[in-house]
Specification:
It comes from Citrus x changshan-huyou. Helix content is 46%, strand content 13%. It has 284 residues and is an alpha/beta fold. The structure holds NADP nicotinamide-adenine-dinucleotide phosphate.
């Protein structure tokens, strides 16, 4: 937005849709110490708190934008009481909206007026940090005018946001940092076997009917390894084999039945493998 405002020389406008319900916020305004505390949750208090936060955020943001000298304003507003889907989770309010509400509340075109007024009207040019209602500047309650509270909310949000970003940065670093092998936790099976010729080798891959077993079988086969997929679910494995051969027509892959929970099945598999005459270079 900053770039656009500068390039276009047209004022940018940030509009927070708040509500008169900010007056029903918890008595302390924002519960910084119980922000995610479900036991202290109260739907009216929480809604009021979020709407108060909309007002405080616009006020503090307006201050920052002004300090940065950018041509962007930030305001908040109450759109009115309107028959919408907002009350779908509250049976009593929903009932009211769908009956008497239709007669006494704003309709949707009226409900969108203040938002559009603040977003576009020339009268609002240069106006920032204000709260509007019925397309006019209006006064929020004392908490909604409390710039100390606005700064506290800003700092609190920035700390939450920065902690999140720091965690994300660390995760990305861990994913991309390469160890002594030259590979990292984001390396793929194809990457770590790139250029390796596995022809002449035979591998038994257990659990090859799905997940990483399937991918292991596919990648080893693509490197020329003769892969014996030792699986319990032969039907699933046949599909895996079909997909591998479709992708790598000269792949040497075969399915053999093995249920690792049955010693009899293990013995049968071992004897069948032995009689196949294949060497065994890799067992996984
Ligand atoms: N209606 C009123 O009387 C009234 C009064 C004062 C203030 N307001 C404010 O006006 C604004 C609009 O309300 P409305 O009456 O138009 O309510 P609405 O009909 O319930 O519309 C709310 C819109 O917000 C979307 N939304 C909700 N949670 C979201 C999320 N987590 N991520 C993305 N989108 C989400 C909804 O999408 P889905 O359809 O996907 O849920 C829906 O499009 C709200 O901020 C409300 O607090 C309304």
């Amino acid at each position: 937005m900053k770039k656009t405002a500068q390039k276009s020389s047209r004022e940018g406008r940030i509009v927070n849709v708040s509500s008169e319900a900010h007056r029903f916020a918890y008595s302390e305004g924002i519960r910084f110490d119980k922000i995610n505390d479900e036991s202290a949750y109260n739907s009216f208090g929480a809604y009021g708190q979020s709407k108060l936060a909309n007002i405080l955020h616009a006020k503090e943001l307006a201050k920052h934008l002004k300090e940065d000298g950018v041509n962007i304003t930030a305001n908040s507003l109450h759109p009115g009481s309107i028959v919408t889907n907002l009350f779908r989770y509250n049976g009593i309010l929903r009932g009211f909206c769908n009956t008497v509400g239709k007669l006494v509340l704003k309709n949707i075109p009226q409900g969108a007026a203040t938002t559009c007024y603040v977003a576009l009207h020339p009268q609002v040019q240069g106006v920032s940090g204000e709260y509007f209602s019925d397309s006019n500047i209006y006064k929020p309650n004392s908490q909604g005018q409390n710039m100390e509270l606005a700064k506290k909310l800003w700092d609190f949000s920035m700390n939450l946001f920065e902690a999140q970003i720091e965690g994300e940065r660390e995760r990305m670093w861990r994913l991309s940092s390469k160890g002594a092998s030259g590979f990292s936790s984001s390396s793929t099976a194809e990457e770590v076997t790139q250029g390796i010729d596995g022809s002449g080798l035979t591998a038994i891959v257990t659990g090859a009917s799905s997940g990483i077993g399937t991918e292991t079988a596919r990648v080893l086969a693509s490197r020329g390894v003769h892969v014996v997929m030792a699986v319990r679910n032969m039907a699933a494995c046949r599909e895996v084999k079909k997909a591998i051969v479709k992708e790598i027509p000269n792949a040497k892959v075969q399915a053999m039945e093995l249920d690792l929970s049955s010693l009899a099945s293990v013995r049968k598999f071992a004897s069948e493998f032995k009689s196949s005459g294949l060497p065994l270079n890799i067992l996984m």
